[in-house]
Amino acid sequence: MELIKEIKELKEYKEKTGLTIAELARKIEADDTTVGRWLKGEVTPNFYSLYKVRNFLNDIKNSEDLKPQELFRDKVNRDHEQIESDINYLKQRISVLSYIEDLDTLVTELNVTTKLGNLMRDAHKTPF
C-alpha cells in the first residue's frame, strides 16, 4: 500500500528528528502501534486521525517558519549591551553634573570677586 502524502511527511519528520514511534505518537496524540502501522503502510489513518496528523504537520511547518531563537537572543544581547553602554555614559554625565553643583558656588564667588575687583579698580581711577 502506498503512503498518503501526510504520512510520508510524518515519516520524513520522524527520520529527520530521530524520534521514536512512541514519541511521535505522543505528539500526535495517537496510539504508537497505530502510528507504526501508518508509517509501514499497513493501514491508513481514519479521518479524525488524519485531521490530527495534518494539524501536527501544520504546527511543525509554522514553527519552522518562525525566526530561530538564536537570532532573537543575539538581538536581545546586542540591545542589552547598548543599554548598558548608554547607562554607563549617563552615569558619567551625572557624576560630572554633581561636580557642577559644587562649581556653582565657586562661579558665584568668582563673579562676586570680579565685581569687587571692578569696583576697586573704578574706585582708584576716580579722583577724590
Question: What key phrases describe this protein's structure?
Answer:
mainly alpha, 128 residues, 83% helix
Describe the structure.
The protein has 128 residues and is mainly alpha-helical. It is 83% helix and 0% strand. It is built from 5 helices and no strands. The radius of gyration is 39 Å and the shape is rod-shaped. It starts with a helix and ends with a helix.
Would you count the extended β strands for me? 0
Main beta-sheet strand count, sense and barrel state: none
Structural class: mainly alpha
Unreliable segments (pLDDT under 50, ≥5 consecutive)? none
Radius of gyration: 39 Å
Termini, distance in Å? 127 Å
How large is the count of helical segments? 5
Q: What helical percentage do the residues reach?
A: over 70%
The assembly state of the depicted protein chains is: single chain
Q: Give the overall shape.
A: rod-shaped
Strand content: under 5%
- The overall pLDDT, averaged over residues, is 81
Summarize the helix and strand pattern as letters: HHHHH
